[in-house]
Write a structure and sequence with these properties.
Length: 645
């Protein structure tokens, strides 16, 4: 029997690969759909501002109830009032101690602490810095500002360090605390003030508590990080020797984490000192009062000099705490020298207090207000044509068109566009949070003013990020340029935010662009630093490999450094946007309007308190929205990686 021939099986073809659309199709289609919907529904479903919104009246009624029950309700009698009295007592105690030292004693104590922290160089910086407060003619106000700052820092550390230790040892606590700290750090400073006035009235107590809340997050975060980073092997060795949890914490974890915790103290002081001048809006004493008076008179010199005094305080406290954080124990001889120098300098200052006047001598003061004003007047007279041109270009070319689009588009279209953009850039969670935040602004009755604020933030952020990116790239590529730029960035970062407004007013008048320029000066240093650090962190081996293939400097920047520093660039954008929001709000004091004006009006006029409180909440919502979008983008893969996946 003959078998049938076996036929070969036909070759199996691989399934045809689905053809993907180009990446640009979906975004372009979304933009086209958004533009079409805007054209169709422009002017419909808009939410115009209403000063008589029901919510504002309800918040006013809540404030009236609080005022009427402040001395009868148990919550106020046994909690809130005691907190206010406690904060007042802490401030009074610290202020009394500083005043009792007299100016020679305080200068000597500062020099002694500088010697103890970092040797003779830090002692010299401390001596010159604190003596400079008197030379500028602001000794008394500087002592009040220092007392407020130290009061807030003491309370921040008293609560922040234990909470940071707890969070560092417990992942569950850290997960609970982290979102709260995120919101606290995102909140514009103005948003803290209205609730403080409602609960603690105006004055030093509300200033101290508001500053404490603002300054506490760095203490908690850095302490938790320090405790978490302690070597597990060291902890296990301690526990294996029979040490209890408390003994391990006290004798192992805290000593090993001390230097990092001191960096947290440094950041807490910096945050407190940036907040204290703003609390002059709620009748806090100190240099902030002088800044506000100068702002009301549009007196550049009178605003810049107290700003310089705040910078001197910031430099002294910063150098002192940084030196303490970086100090290494040099043995018993080094400790004896440190404590001996501290004792000699402090004793010398205290010995001079009875001999010299209690207050800083007027004949030693140097008046520089008039020369500064002369320079400002000359700049205003000779640069007006240029600054006016820049102002008009930005106002008519960017601000007005963008604000018109945001305020004339339906609220649901803006919300849907933000949802789609955030979803695309940062993922579904960020998109939903952004949409909920915008819905919250609408529910508060502040949609129109929220869009006006968002307009200034977006324009200011673009200008800030572009300039910060350029400076950061230049600093990363040239160490000489970085060395020259660093002192300017240090000065810009330590100046109080109020001080940026007056030069901007002198150059650009009381307009929205003034607030944008002040935000630019305020935020650019941070953006430039983060960009520079990110580019410098690119491994040298990668750079050498790229150069060996013949890459030019331009190709090296665009194809190696910037892509590898993507996380740092997104962090720089996040910080630039959040800081621009904070400064644009303060720009309400020089005519920027929008939500910032609503907050200020809530302080100044009783009938506008509810609107001001609601505006503070709206600012928080805008801050959370912008932060989630930029932070979420940092957590997603880059398009290049997606294509190669």
């Amino acid at each position: 029997m003959v078998s049938a021939p076996v036929q070969a099986a036909p070759p199996v073809r691989a399934p045809a690969r689905a053809r993907r659309l180009p990446r640009w199709v979906v975004p372009v289609a979304g933009v086209v759909a958004g533009v079409a919907l805007y054209v169709l529904f422009r002017g419909r479903a808009v939410l115009p501002h209403d000063d008589d919104a029901t919510l504002f009246h309800w918040l006013n009624d809540a404030r009236d109830w609080v005022d009427a029950n402040r001395n009868s309700n148990p919550i106020f009698l046994y909690v809130v009032n005691y907190l206010r009295l406690g904060a007042s007592e802490v401030f009074a105690l610290i202020q009394g101690a500083l005043v009792a030292l007299g100016w020679p004693g305080l200068v000597g104590l500062a020099a002694g602490l500088g010697w103890l922290a970092g040797g003779w160089r830090i002692a010299l910086v401390s001596l010159v810095g604190f003596a400079g407060l008197g030379v500028l003619g602001f000794w008394e106000a500087s002592v009040e500002t220092l007392a407020l700052t130290l009061s807030a820092v003491v309370l921040s550390l008293l609560f922040g360090i234990p909470l940071g230790i707890w969070a560092g040892r417990s992942p569950r606590v850290r997960r609970i605390v982290t979102p709260v700290l995120d919101v606290m750090q995102i909140m514009p400073t103005f948003s803290y003030l209205s609730p403080m006035v409602l609960l603690f009235l105006i004055g030093s107590a509300s200033s101290t508590i508001a500053t404490m809340i603002y300054a506490m997050p760095p203490a908690i975060r850095i302490t938790a990080l320090a405790i978490e980073r302690v070597s597990g092997v060291t902890v296990e060795a301690s526990e294996s020797l029979g040490a209890t949890g408390w003994q391990t914490l006290r004798k192992v974890r805290l000593p090993l984490a001390l230097n990092t915790i001191m960096l947290g103290v440094n950041q807490t002081i910096a945050a407190a000192l940036s907040m204290v001048p703003l609390t002059a809006l709620i009748a806090a004493p100190g240099l902030g009062e002088d800044l506000l008076r100068a702002l009301a008179r549009v007196n550049v010199g009178a605003a810049l000099v107290p700003g310089i005094a705040i910078v001197l305080i910031a430099i002294v406290l910063d150098r002192m705490t940084r030196a303490a954080a970086q100090r290494r124990d040099g043995g018993s001889r080094a400790r004896a020298v440190r404590w001996g120098g501290f004792a000699v300098l402090t004793a010398a200052g205290l010995a001079l207090t009875p001999v010299l006047a209690q207050e800083f001598p007027e004949q030693w003061q140097v008046q520089i207000v008039r020369p500064i004003n002369d320079v400002a007047d000359w700049i205003e007279a000779h640069w007006y044509a240029f600054t006016g041109f820049i102002n008009d270009v930005v106002a008519y070319g960017l601000l007005n068109p963008l604000q018109h689009v945001l305020t004339s588009a339906p609220w649901w279209l803006i919300t849907a566009a933000v949802l789609a953009f955030a979803w695309r850039v940062s993922g579904p969670a960020a998109g939903l949070v952004a949409a909920v935040c915008l819905l919250g602004v609408a529910a508060l009755g502040l949609w129109e003013h929220g869009m006006e604020t968002l307009t200034m933030v977006l324009v200011g952020s673009v200008i800030t990020i572009v300039a910060g990116l350029a400076l950061g790239v230049a600093a990363a590529r040239s160490r000489r340029f970085a060395a020259g730029l660093r002192p300017l960035l240090d000065a810009a970062q330590t100046m109080p935010s109020f001080s940026y407004l007056l030069p901007a007013v002198a150059l650009f008048g009381t307009t929205r662009f003034t607030a944008i320029m002040a935000a630019f000066i305020y935020a650019v240093p941070v953006v430039a630093r983060v960009v520079e650090d990110g580019l410098r962190a690119v491994p040298g081996t990668v750079m050498e490999a790229a150069r060996s293939t013949g890459s030019t400097d331009r190709q090296l920047l665009w194809k190696v450094q910037l892509p590898m520093a993507r996380g740092s660039l997104l962090l720089a954008a996040n910080q630039g946007i959040v800081m621009t929001l904070a400064m644009v709000v303060i720009g309400a004091l020089v005519g920027a309007g929008a939500l910032g004006y609503d907050v200020v009006a809530g302080f100044a006029q009783q009938e506008d308190y509810g609107k001001g409180l609601a505006a503070g909440v709206a600012l928080v919502l805008l801050g959370v929205m912008l932060d989630r979008i930029t932070q979420g983008a940092n957590g997603r893969r880059s398009p290049h990686k997606k294509r190669n996946a």
